[in-house]
Amino acid sequence: MDPVLFIGRSNPELGGKLAAALGGEPGRCLIEEFADGEIRVEVKEDIAGREACLLQSTGAPTGRNVLELLLLADACRRRGARRITAVIPYFGYARQDRRVSGEEPIGARLMADLLATRCDRIVAVDLHNAAIEGFASVPLVHLSAVPLLVEAFRKYRTSENVLVAPDAGAVKLVQRYGEMLHLPVAYIEKVRKSDKEVSVQAIAGEVKDRAPVLVDDMISTGGTMVAAIEALTEAGARADFSIIASHCLLAGRAAAKLEKLPIRRIITTDSMPTRSPNGLPLESHPLARLLADALRDPVRP
Ligand code: R5P
């Protein structure tokens, strides 16, 4: 029997596309808030003995979206679902994957633990750190949007491009793009001063007179991209930048900051709804097919 898809409030547009890709209507559920802000959920579908798939990205408002997902999972369990799959295209808290000062929690581990209390399986896309799979005590299906994004960029590719990792965390990712697009790569050494402020220490690789393509797993405040573009410009790169990032959060003033820069295109996915009312050249590619194929794959855990 096909799984029943329930769509949380984080990304209704992707939810609609995923329901269509799965070939049916989403499961009926009520999600609302009490006057004091508590979330109230009712699963209106008879799902006894069936698999329930819960679509919810855990980006902003992050706390609300996480709790809403857990409440949906709890309701599905109490309605007798055979298996509960949390489908999390953008997995928030993944950047909190280790302790730096020794004073922090490990948010990614906590997320995995919370999800495992109510869900039997997690499906995620381009996690900030693939090692997060090891945090989860339930099977985690880690999908990649990289092939989709490579194909989206291929029509713009020129021999004058250089792929650039804007920080050490993106090095492996940029190498993967380099192999698939047959382009040279360069690396930036970034130092993060605060959650909103970063600075560039050095650039390794040939960037002069080249059109850089910055590759990262996500754009949040945009600070990483702004610092990278400024440093590359100073190093003689062309004022012709592209960005490829799996997740485009555009937190705070990110859109306003990025709009001022010579960015020709930002190629991303619809893992989070894109709020860019202004003139950002966003190309958002749907994840529905990738997710639907994974959810229907009988061989996956
Ligand atoms: C960090 O390691 C990530 O890969 C991204 O570089 C970072 O999260 C982007 O954040 P922001 O856009 O706020 O600089």
Describe the structure.
There is one protein chain. The chain has two domains: 4-144, 3-Layer(aba) Sandwich (Rossmann fold); 146-285, Rossmann fold (3-Layer(aba) Sandwich), CATH 3.40.50.2020. It has eight helices and 14 strands. The protein has helices at 12-22, 62-78, 107-118, 146-154, 171-181, 223-234, 254-259, 288-296, and strands at 4-7, 29-33, 39-43, 51-55, 83-88, 121-125, 140-143, 161-165, 185-192, 198-204, 211-219, 241-248, 263-269, 282-285. The strands form three sheets. The protein has a seven-stranded mixed sheet with strand order 10-9-8-11-12-13-14, with helices on both faces. A five-stranded parallel sheet has the order 1-4-5-6-7, sandwiched between helices. Strands 2-3 form a two-stranded antiparallel sheet. α6 links the parallel β11 (211-219) and β12. α1 packs across α8. It is elongated and about 60 Å long. The model has no long low-confidence stretch (mean pLDDT 95). The structure holds ribose-5-phosphate (R5P). Residues 95, 167, 169-170, 198, 216-224 line the site of ribose-5-phosphate.
Spell out the key features of this protein.
binds ribose-5-phosphate; 8 helices; Rossmann fold; five-stranded parallel β-sheet; 301 residues; alpha/beta
Mean pLDDT: 95
List the strand order in the largest sheet: 10-9-8-11-12-13-14
Run of helices and strands: EHEEEHEHEEHEHEEEHEHEEH
The total tally of domains equals: 2
How far the N terminus sits from the C terminus, by CA atoms, comes to 17 Å
What would CATH call the class of the largest domain?
Alpha Beta
Query: How many beta strands in the DSSP annotation?
Result: 14
Spans where pLDDT lies below 50 across 5 or more residues: none
User: What is the number of helical segments per DSSP (H or I, 4+ residues)?
Assistant: 8
Q: Tell me the CATH topology of the largest domain.
A: Rossmann fold
User: Which structural class fits the helix and strand makeup?
Assistant: alpha/beta
Helix amount: 25-40%
Shape: elongated
Main β sheet profile: 7 strands, mixed
